[in-house]
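Anyone opening a protein record will find just a pair of labelled lines. A complete record is shown below as an example.
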Amino acid sequence: MKIVVIGMGYVGIPCAALLADVPGFEVTGVQRRSERSGWKIDCLNAGRSPFDGPEPGLSELLGRVACIKRSFRVTDDYAVCREADVILIDVQTPTDDGHVPHYESLREVSAQAGRHLQPGTLVIVESTVAPGTTQHVVQPILEKESGLKAEGAVHLAEPAPVGGALHLDEQGAPQLGPSDRFFLAFSYERVMPGKLLEYITDFPRVVGGVDEESTARAVALYRHIVRETITPTDVLTAEMAKVVENAYRDVNIAFANEVALACERMGVDVFEVRSLINARPDRQMHLAGAGVGGHCLPKDSWLLAYGLDAYGRERGAELRIIPMARAINDGMPGHVAQLVKEALAEAGRPTAGSRVAVLGVAYLENSDDTRNTPAMALIRALRDAGAEVVAHDPYVRQEEWKLLWGGEPPVKLVHDLFSALEGADCAAIVTRHDEYSGLLHQAGGMRTRAVVDGRNVLEPAACKAAGFVYRGVGKGGW
């Protein structure tokens, strides 16, 4: 089987590598030669992981499939779709400031794939999209460009097996069905940096096709790499499940953040409150923190809202809790900025003219993923208050830092923690990188000893004993 994976990011790379490790599968990744990501083509073809954070097993897997088995390669040529039995679409689907999804990449790759699409090919959208997008955006583009149809063709005499490989003909090629159609499904990813392979192989999978045959064929494909339950459903239900799953998490995090703000006012520690609540197994309060980042959580609630407006019934209930949760989580970097001002004031320094070290640019601990990082909002708030800001992250590349700012950054990014803290008046922890647990031992060069802990990394008592003015999200007792 020949498989094409379009988009070499946090979803496409591990999925492509796992499929390439299946005996008899040949996988080609397609990556645009853009300023931001074009370098990944040569990196992956050399069998190296492009991620700087730890990814257990990924480097070894890429080395095996790219250099030893030679079952995986990457190109920028969409013509490889012409030979594909399966095409996976794994491109980013961000939202703009008005919470409207930007589908430029999704539309472009759908058109490119459609121009080369052959009858019987299975196309699977893995990118997170607003409910209704697969059928209202992707399907029409594929059908227009290919001249084929995704629905309505006669089923095979015997459906593709759910628990094994696809049917093969006498020559060993996949039995792909009628000549006037292709198959289309949506199956969402649940990956997380630092656990990319594990979250594909060891998490349950949801697969929804535009018809039963598309669903069955997609399920059969994932059987080769997913060890957990694979649940078939329809395409719209699968799309809905993805955005609701992340909206659910976002709302729960917002609850934790709101409780953290209440605990600060009441003079208690939110993390102690949380531990007391979570002692009961059926009560699992989430973690409060400096903000919510990543590709999914800051936007998936808005994708849900967009899907309702664009494709839902004309009359129905409006979302209320979910947008409110988004507002709470978006407000946390501003709250951290206020804590920095309070800590500096207690230390006898005005915010304007003070040097603040923002620790952590990646949104997730021990990763290099900067998508929708709350550090950017904090940096802007501190600079608006007149502070001089320096950023630190052990994993984020200088090239990525420049692209985040859309040009020459106004804030310097350093990779050495001691250098970041030298001459600083306050250190603000945004990301729970392991390195920051030793911050107190690296702070000898600070001009003013003030620290704001946005991720519950440090012990407040230890900070006080070391002579630090301390503030922490949800740490009202200090």
